[in-house]
């Protein structure tokens, strides 16, 4: 059943074939696409301009997949799905090295089916690539801590940390360092061994990552200062980044909700944390990591992903020690059963776009999950309980895979790109209201993509749009989501009829909007 779960984790999102999500997934896909088109595998670029905010390894994986499988959603989504699967394997290995085979297996199942790791693995964003490298390095340090050799594990850990630096900067080293401190706190006589291994690993990580960073500094002088000082240090200490200004408790609901449907097991495990110094060390890894993230000025949902291997190991340890279904199990069943229905309710509330035919599918998935949970309520056989949890997770994922494409149409520019492709000629300007447009660029035909520049397509706020249409060429295109039309009507008393519809976008000519503004009393 675990193998079936692994296959489902990869195949179900591919089978759903949801269009690429904006803001981030479409942007990253367009950058990898441009890498393939231009043959420049050193500098990530978007519309010809260097994109300096992210390292290169995830873009390399995306570009390789696009070259092999083609310029479509499956080519974009396969790398993060495989990174998610490798992260699951890393959690299994780490949980087994810390405790036992059963804990490792349950921890892997928990990580693979927790809400946040599962969601991140289905989108092309860099954070998912960090976890496998982080877990591999932590696994190697655990071997040293257990009394094994130092050099070989340290070298493997160093190579892994170097790849993490090429994926997500220094955060992997920080979390592995926190892990090492917590291990030593559990057994202080291992301080020297672990410190030597970690020092070797960090030194090797620098050597592994340095060639690309040096190449970027050579190609773009000042890059190292920008990325490590402005993006890392100042971004952490000051409110200079786009994601700044969020409260200190920002990650608490993300952890609670992101750990579903396993949150109940964590609550049970927390009551027993002092029973075992090693489990207390894993709690320490999570708690110190949470404090580290919470103290930073820049906060984002996906930044919390490195916390989840620890949570998965704690939840897996709880269920491996107490196989009898409990309150945590009841919450598990309820969360999985409610997930497809909750997705439809959220879609209805946010966009008002739910086909009546979807509700029976979501309800059926919920009923099947509850039925499986009911049959397992008195189970004391470990394998049967684990198989039941896997089965419930797969059913819930099938239900969600029906909902996801419906939500994606409101968060993608695929239909807008198709409308532009049909015209065969780009308008002099494309203004997209309150939307990022990476996916539009990805889906454009090669001929139109060659014409596109950073000046010819822009994201603007609705307030700025009113000023822009006064000066834009009359045949410039304005694309606005249907959900924003009431706001447009408040600014333009008698807005013109849209020239066309492109999925959930409505398309206007700037000249028509300008005429409506001039006619306003």
Question: What are the key terms here?
Answer:
521 residues, mainly alpha, five-stranded mixed β-sheet, globular
Compact overview of the structure:
The protein is mostly helical. Helices cover 67% and strands 5% of the residues.
**What topology, given as strand order, has the largest sheet?**
4-3-5-7-6
**Percentage of residues in helical conformation:** 55-70%
Measured between the Cα atoms of the first and last residue, the distance is 68 Å
**What is the overall shape?**
globular
Number of strands: 7
Structure explained in plain terms:
With 521 residues, the protein is mostly helical. It contains 24 helices and seven strands. It has helices at residues 2-16, 24-38, 57-69, 73-98, 101-113, 115-121, 127-145, 151-168, 171-186, 191-219, 223-237, 251-258, 263-270, 277-295, 308-321, 327-351, 358-376, 382-408, 414-423, 438-443, 446-451, 462-468, 485-491, 510-518, and strands spanning 45-46, 49-50, 430-433, 457-460, 477-481, 500-502, 505-509. A hairpin with a 2-residue loop joins β6 and β7 (505-509). α4 packs parallel to α7, α4 crosses α15 and α9 (171-186) runs antiparallel to α10. The longest helix is centred in the middle third of the chain and has 29 residues, at 191-219.
Write the topology of this structure.
Elements (H helix, E strand, L loop, with lengths): L1 H15 L7 H15 L6 E2 L2 E2 L6 H13 L3 H26 L2 H13 L1 H7 L5 H19 L5 H18 L2 H16 L4 H29 L3 H15 L13 H8 L4 H8 L6 H19 L12 H14 L5 H25 L6 H19 L5 H27 L5 H10 L6 E4 L4 H6 L2 H6 L5 E4 L1 H7 L8 E5 L3 H7 L8 E3 L2 E5 H9 L3
Parallel strand pairs: 3-4, 3-5
Antiparallel strand pairs: 1-2, 5-7, 6-7
